[in-house]
Every structure is written in C-alpha cells, then in structure tokens.
Amino acid sequence: MRLRPTFVALTAAGLLAAGTFPAMAGPQTPKPYDPAAPGRETEPVVLTGANFAGWSAPDEVTAKVPNTEGAQCLGGTAAACSHNRYEQPEVATGAALGQGVPVDKLLGYRWDGTKGWVQIPFQVDELATRYLSNANSGFAFYSESDQNLTYVYDQDRFNWTAEDPADPCHAVPRGEPSSPDPVPGLDNNDEVAFMAADAGPQAPLDAALPQGVVDSRQVAITDPSTGQQSFAYVMRAGDGADAPKAAFNASNGYVRYLPDNDSDTFLYSQSSYGSYGATFQGAYFDPSTGQCITATPKQHRPKDTGWVKTPRYAFRYDGRWLMTETRVASTAQEAANAAQSDPAKWQYGPDLIDQWKARAFQQRPGGETPCCGYEEEVNNWGGSSMLMGFRAGPVRAIRASWGADSSTNNIRTEIFYRSQMHEMDNLRVHVIPPGDGIYSQWDYNAGRMTKYYNPYVPQGVDIDGRNDEVFGNGRMHIADDGVRYQSNDKTGVAPVDQQVNQGAAVGTPADKCPSDGTGKACINNDVDTVDPTFSGPAGTLNWEQTSGPWGTFVDRITVKQVTAGAAYSLLTTPYYRDDSCFDDGTGSDPGLHVKPKHTDGDVDSAGQPRECWKPEYGDPVAYAAAHNLPADHFYQGDIGTHGVHILLIADSDNGTLTVPVDEIDSDQRRVILNGDPGNVGELYGRGLEKPAVATVVVEHRAQVAPAPAGSKKAKSTKHSKANPPRR
Predict the structure, then answer these.
(1) Cβ of 28: how many Cβ atoms within 10 Å?
(2) For strand 461-462 and strand 386-392, is the pairing parallel, antiparallel, or unpaired?
(3) What pLDDT sits at residue 499?
(4) What integer pLDDT is reported at residue 357 of this predicted model?
(5) What confidence score (pLDDT) does residue 12 get?
(6) Residue 25 confidence (pLDDT)
(7) Closest Cα partner for 268 from 281, 254, 251, 259?
(8) Residue 424: exposed, middle, or buried by beta-carbon count in 10 A (0-12, 13-18, 19+)?
(9) How many helices and strands, by DSSP H and E, does the chain display?
C-alpha cells in the first residue's frame, strides 16, 4: 500500500461533520433470529492439541528482539538484504518442555452399530510460532519482523526461489522443502480436524478398541440449540505390526490440492510499486514467445497456479492473490464425483465468479485520497507476494500467501473443506486515514447468480446489474472548494465522472482535487459505506447469501483487533454493489478491463460505444460472440458484488514490536451448496453465533489382544456388566 510523501489525516468525525455521508434512513427490520440449529453437515470440528491431555506437549515458548534490518536495506537488492524467511528467535525452548505422541499415530473413528469401529477422514496439522521478515521489501523499514502462528506446510513455497541448473525457469527450493515443528509430535497449538457429519452414535461401554489401538479419546459434539449429541473417537495406534494405518490421505479424502504441472515455472513478477515485495532476480518464462529468458534477468516468482477440488466444488488459483473461478456440482454430479477417485473426471456446473477482489484506498482507478494511490490484487499484490506454503490432507487443504505491497507481512490463509472454505487474513499495515480504507469483495459472473439475501432483505433482491441500495455507492469529494457527494446508484449509463475523465462530450465536469501543489488533504474518491436500509447498522456483519441455478454461497465475515477484540468491527462496514456500469479496475466479466491501474474509456476496441450489461443479454461472452463484439464491449461491471470495507486503520503492523499488539484479523466462512435452495442464510450463516460444543473425554476401553502367530482372529478382552470400564 503506497504512501504519498505528505498527507493530512482526516478524522471520521470530521467526515461526518462535513456532511460527507447522506442522511441515514432507518434500517429495515431484519428477519427474526431463528433459534433452530444451524446446518451442521457442512461444518468441520477443529480442536487443538490442548484438548488432548496426556497426549499433547506444551507448545514452544519463544521471544524475538526487534531488529532494524528492513530499515537498513530500504528496498535494496544487495545480497545482505534477506528475502522472505523465518527469522530465528533469541529465545526458543524447542522440545525442552516435552514431546507429544507422534501425530501419524492418531486416527479418527466413529461407531457403526453394524460394522463396529469405522475410520473417518481425520487430519492433524502442526503449527509453530514463526517470525516473518522480508527485509528486502521497500516497506520493510515499517514492518520489520512479525510473530505469526504458522502451519507446518508440506512445502514452504516461499523458499522456492532457486533455479534448477537443468532448467533455469524451473523453481526449486533454496534449502529444505519444509520447516518442521520444533516440538516433535502433538503439542498444544497443533490442530485436529474432522467433519461434524462423520460423527455417529456413542459406542457401547463394553466395545473394545480396534486391534492395534492402545488408547482413545471420546469427542462428544453437542448442539446447544437442540441438545442433540453425536460422537467421534480419536485413537492412538500402537507400535506393533498389527497397528492400524490411516485409511484416508490427501489422495482419497474429501479435498484435493492440485497444483498445475507448470506451477513451478518462473514468471516475471513485480508490483507496479517497484521495490515493494522485492525478491530475487533471474530467468523467467515469457508466455508470449514460449521461451525461457536468461539474458536479461528480472524479478521472478513461480506461477503458483492450481486447483482445489472437492466432489462439491472446484476453486481456481491463477496466482497468489488471484482466485478466479468457482464451479459447483449439482447434487447428481456431486454423488458421481464422490464415487470417482480421479478428480480430473469430476464434473461441475459453469464458472460462477469473475474473481475475488481486494482494494486499498478506493474502489476503482481514477480517484484521489489524502493518503495513497489505488491498489488491487492483480497488478500490485500478486507482484509483491510469495506463496507461503500449502498443506493437503483428507479433511482440508490449506494454502497461504505472504505479503501485499506495503503490508509486507500480511498473511492470507485459505482453508478448504468438503463443502465450505475459510479465508483468514492477518492484516499488518500502516496507518490508513478515513476516505481510504481496505476493501475485500466477491464479484460474480453476469447471468450466473440470480438472488442476493441478508437478514435485512430476507425476501432477496434480483442480481441484475442494477443497484438496490438506497445509497452507499457514491463519489465523495472533500476539498477547499466544498463538500459534495454524488451517488453512483444510477443504472443504464456509466458514471458521469468516468465518462468525462475519458474526454467524452457528455455530463458535467468531474470533480478533481485542487492541483495547486500545496499538498493539502483532499478526497475525490469512490467510497462504499454501509446502507442501513439494506445491510443494517454499521458494525453488524451479518450473513450474506448469493444464489443461482448452478450454486449457492452463504458468507459470514468476522473482524477483530488483537487488543480491542470485536470492537474493531464498528469500523468495518458491509457493502453491496450490483452495477454493471461500474468498472472497478480488474476482471473480465461481463466485460474485460483493458487498462491496468487506469480508467477504461467509453469506446471498445472496435470503436463502438461500450454498454452496461443487462440480464436480457444472457451470457455476455455468448452475446458478444453472436453479435461480433469484442471482449471489452461491456463495461467490466460489478455483479452482485459484496464484501467489507475497513473505513480506517490506526495501525495494525505492531509498530516495531515482534509480537501481535494491534494487528487486525478477519475470518470469512463461505458455505457452498448445490443449486438454489431459496433463502437458507439463517441455516448456514449462524454457525459462528451458535457453534456446536466439542468435549473431549479420556476413555479406558479394553484393548484387543494381539493375534497369535498364524491365527486369523484377535481375542477381545471385554469388561463384564458388573465391572464396566471407566470412562
């Protein structure tokens, strides 16, 4: 996030006093809170090692002295300036406090009244406290080193920076492929995961453990809304030859992480803000020529492209920050996919999203703010980030990206389950004054999604490229020449200021910040604020649902600040924009954005006036092909776009400290459903407010005696009714 040399911070109170926002109408009455239990079949159960007393060791205790390497480097490229890496703490207990049971000895079971003990997909993910730095980044003087509780990845992809001697455009690890947990075995911050739907009835008291299992823990899952319980069992396999192995792994569980075959190929990669996120220079593949360029080294990173697939959905990565495609299976397709072991043969419906998008400081190019420029996920953050790592297992796949321009140690982690995904962000960034802010949003493909719901619009609104908010989408102008607010809630024509900025002979002169060189604070910027008549009062981050014939998404976002907790959500407002005329600067549907980082014109590449997509046109790609129109004929458009806007940030980069004191963390949970079930937001969007309660109990079940040599059956040692096992 690029800072101008000088700016004057404006306060939120000042914006309100200046009359920046229009008078707020009273909110609609939301749909009554539904006390019924949420739909648990999509929910995972995630416990930590601390829940398993006797098996888990204390996690490592560390401490790191603040350093000034970033300030010394200042974006230099000298070898002494380190790139993305884990810094070594001055204090680290390692395994001195103990070791846990080996994680590969832990298995998940449920009880089946007919079959007895049955293994379920089960996963243990180790975590460790790391200290992150990228001193070579141009903004590392601000970020320096930051503590981060980090998954132990199958591959630490930020180390894939060396060139293969046999193929310089092929990235290979610079050192070890992965950094192990300093505490061997299960420790208190490790995570244990399985799906709630895989739990079953409670096992009989006299049911002996499976053969080769030496210990067990019962996990009772209680739904507080109904009192209903289900049970899963975490068991510890012994060391003998009869010890069971995990029946499920990353190749036959619920989730597949599928990097492209050429995802390790180096491409030229650099933010439009030069040194931000600087990394190594070297060979790179040129897609336009199909050649590996070695004569003129440039900053390079691996492509990091790939898919995440489950029988229900497919999710596409076209880069570290580019989530560009989601396809959902029909009920019949999902059943067929689950029966087919090869994910290459899995079938889904059409692509539903244009892409996930994020913005710093303004919603589209062309505006002016008191602080900073315009940043987005394509031309900025993809070129200033590294893929931190990925971890794949039978229950979930985990992938994290590291860095976003001046948010040097920002970590965005996506966790994919069978029918939902979590997006978590550790936002570590400098001061951002009012009038700027951070945006995160989903933008959909035209004609694919048909209804949007939230608790304040339970009847839903049509997703048709026409805004439904009373206000909230507008152009704010605060300068010496006055205070004005121009609503962009007009449909059918492009925003007037966009047309005028391109020299079109329509509309009235667009507002601009004074160009007197005084450096005075000025705002002339698209700003999305909450519309209480549509989304409820500010600070109420409710569930949102987007549906269409090919799939449904139910989203819920939470935002908290490390020390202030959930109070920071008062500075985070939801917004909704359904406007096919609005070009937010990236994307390809319904129209292609042409000029990176700049405002597109009002004439397409064939010289014809551009149009705002309308529902009667249907699929914009098919429509353009049928009418011999170029891909940029339609304005890029925001279709059913929803997300959150953090209005201002006092600082969330922990100052110069190496421990979290003021960073902002967010968690978005997205449930993915087949087809269009109608409004099910209350059913699938309330899991955060009505969580199931998991209780772990130590068991003392009888063990199955080892089978004698040459025998086919093991002998069960059961307790009698007069002397039942302790539970």
Answers:
(1) 15
(2) unpaired
(3) 39
(4) 95
(5) 36
(6) 42
(7) 281
(8) middle
(9) 8, 41
3-state SS class at 684: helix
User: Looking at residue 487, what is its pLDDT?
Assistant: 67
Cα distances (Å, whole numbers) of residue 61 to 95, 130, 236: 10, 11, 26
d(C-alpha 74, C-alpha 56), whole Å = 43
Taking alpha carbons only, the member of 512, 524, 505, 525 closest to residue 603 is 505
> What stretch of H or E contains 71?
helix 69-73
Query: Taking a C-beta distance cutoff of 8 angstroms, is the pair 381, 271 a contact?
Result: yes
Counting as low any pLDDT under 50, the low residues of the chain are 1-27, 490-509, 713-727
Q: For residue 602, what is the DSSP state? A: S
Q: Which helix (H) or strand (E) holds 483?
A: strand 482-487
Its pTM stands at: 0.91
C-alpha pair distances (Å), 43 with each of 220, 340, 687 = 15, 23, 8
**3-class DSSP state for residue 444?**
strand
Q: What is the CA radius of gyration of the chain?
A: 27
Cα-Cα-Cα-Cα dihedral of 635, 641, 646, 648, to 10°? 20
Identify whether the C-beta of residue 320 lies closer than 8 Å to the C-beta of residue 304: yes
**pLDDT for the residue 497:** 42
d(CA 662, CA 597) in angstroms, rounded, equals: 31
Name the residue among 540, 476, 376 with its Cα closest to residue 33. Answer: 540
Entry field: residues in the chain:
727
pLDDT digits (tens, 9 = 90+) for 232-266: 999 999 999 999 999 999 999 999 999 999 999 99
Could you tell me the two tokens for 430? Answer: 């400098």
User: Locate tokens 């994680």: which residue?
Assistant: 103
Q: What is the dihedral of CA 160, 163, 168, 169, to 10 degrees?
A: 10
| CB neighbour class for 697 (10 Å; exposed up to 12, middle 13-18, buried from 19) | exposed
Cα→Cα distances 606→114, 155, 324, Å? 68, 46, 26
**Nearest alpha carbon to residue 654 among 158, 147, 262:** 147
Going by the DSSP 8-state scheme, the letter that residue 339 receives in this structure is H
